[in-house]
Design goal:
By secondary structure, the protein is α/β, with parallel strands linked by helices. The chain folds into two domains: 171 residues, Rossmann fold (3-Layer(aba) Sandwich), CATH 3.40.50; 161 residues, RecF/RecN/SMC, N-terminal domain (Glutathione S-transferase Yfyf (Class Pi), Chain A, domain 2). The chain is 41% helix and 21% strand. The chain is built from ten helices and 15 strands. A hairpin with a 2-residue loop joins β4 and β5.
Length: 405
């Protein structure tokens, strides 16, 4: 799959811009702050309905406007698809597919698939667990769009349950609220079990690709791995429901105990475990006024060799781990493409300026064979020779068509 045309209206710094693209490598060159990243951000937003730079939609609208439009024409084989996404400041976002009637924005998820590399990716290693949970969930939704509803359902139930717990902490909790909390426990257990089950499966798919990608980018002296740490395990252990044991190791070898068991449980079985865990944590949650168990507090721990990457990895190792996570996502999507999905568009937004020459060349060699690679750079000399292809000059407010080549 590749993006053939992108049109933006009142998105970020652009009142209007048109960008024609083609398969292979395209490098967008322009000074810092000129708007290159805005173009890449729009493509990424079309794929995930979220920005890699900000947590809300408001900054995406050009200042003083109430609506932004992203239009894109995607080509997959002989089929062309036109997507239109309307981002609104005062109402729900809407979308159109091939100029049909408007649909919910999330109905377009899975049509445009991207893997976006950006300097902000350092948060995947250095940031708090929410960055890594978001990474997992965005990839999950890209692969299986119906899980957008899974996430939405869980967030809705969590909000309601937290409101009830906060009222208890404020002294407004009565015996009648106890029964209400039991009902929300059931809802949250089911939604949480579906999300946890999907995440655990995804981590299993990612793990070998992460190890291989890190080996490709480095000298191979350390293995890269990932451990999914669930609050469900901790709650069950605290309750004495099972023997304490470590989770699956970073190298993928199996251990015994509750954490290993979680991968083998069905959604129904995980639902039962959550109900049990909520009961065990009830007193602590009422005291603190917040939900302490669930996927919203889980962690994806990244490991290099025998040590956690966070706090122990050097700057170069941190960058290699971040790049390896994105490459692992790409490889998982390629696996999916072989069974009917689409190969993703690769976006490298101002990444090469952050890397040493060796990592630049290795990353360029890995991604150069993708169906479409979009790269941004302030200085053309930052782009390795392995990424030869079309160059596009970005200027204030648009594209310099005379300098495209």
């Amino acid at each position: 799959m590749y993006l053939e045309h992108l049109s933006l209206t009142d998105f970020r710094s652009y009142a209007q811009v048109e960008l024609s693209l083609e398969p292979g490598v395209t490098v967008l060159v322009g000074s810092n702050g000129i708007g290159k990243t805005n173009l890449m951000e729009a493509i990424g937003y079309l794929a995930t309905l979220s920005s890699h730079r900000v947590s809300s939609d408001a900054p995406l609208l050009r200042f003083g406007t109430g609506r932004a439009m992203i239009r894109a024409r995607l080509v997959r084989g002989e089929q062309s698809t036109v997507l239109e996404l309307e981002i609104n400041s005062s109402r729900a976002n809407r979308a159109r597919i091939n100029r049909s009637n408007p649909v919910r924005a999330r109905d377009i998820l899975g049509i445009c698939q991207t893997v976006l590399f950006a300097p902000e990716d350092l948060a995947l290693v250095k940031g708090d667990p929410s960055s890594r949970r978001r990474f997992l969930d965005e990839l999950l939704v890209s692969l299986i769009p119906r899980h957008a509803a899974t996430r939405s359902d869980y967030d809705r139930v969590l909000k309601q349950r937290n409101a009830l717990l906060k009222s208890a902490r404020a002294g407004k909790f009565s015996s009648g609220h106890e029964a209400t909390l039991d009902v929300w426990d059931q809802h949250m257990a089911r939604a949480g079990a579906e999300l946890l089950h999907a995440r655990l499966e995804l981590v299993e798919r990612l793990r070998p690709h992460l190890k291989n990608a890190y080996a490709q980018l480095t000298d191979g002296s350390k293995d890269a791995g990932a451990i999914y740490r669930s609050t469900l395990q901790g709650a069950l252990e605290d309750d004495g429901a099972g023997p304490a044991a470590g989770p699956v190791s970073a190298r993928g070898t199996e251990s015994t105990g509750p954490a290993e068991d979680l991968r083998l449980l069905s959604v129904d079985e995980l639902t039962g475990r959550y109900v049990q865990a909520f009961a065990a944590s009830r007193r602590k949650e009422l005291d603190r006024g917040i939900s302490l168990v669930g996927p919203h507090r889980d962690e994806l721990e990244l490991v290099l060799g025998a040590a956690p990457a966070k706090g122990y990895a050097s700057h170069g190792e941190t960058w290699s781990m971040c790049l390896s996570l994105r490459l692992a996502s790409y490889y998982v999507m390629l696996d999916d493409a072989r069974t009917g999905g689409s190969a993703p568009i690769l976006i490298l937004d101002d990444v090469f300026a952050e890397l040493d020459v060796q990592r630049r060349r290795k990353l360029a060699a890995i991604v150069s064979g993708a169906e479409q690679v979009l790269v941004t750079a302030a200085v053309e000399d930052d782009i390795p020779a392995e990424l030869s292809g079309r160059r596009v000059k970005v200027i204030p407010g648009g594209i310099d068509e005379q300098e495209n080549r």
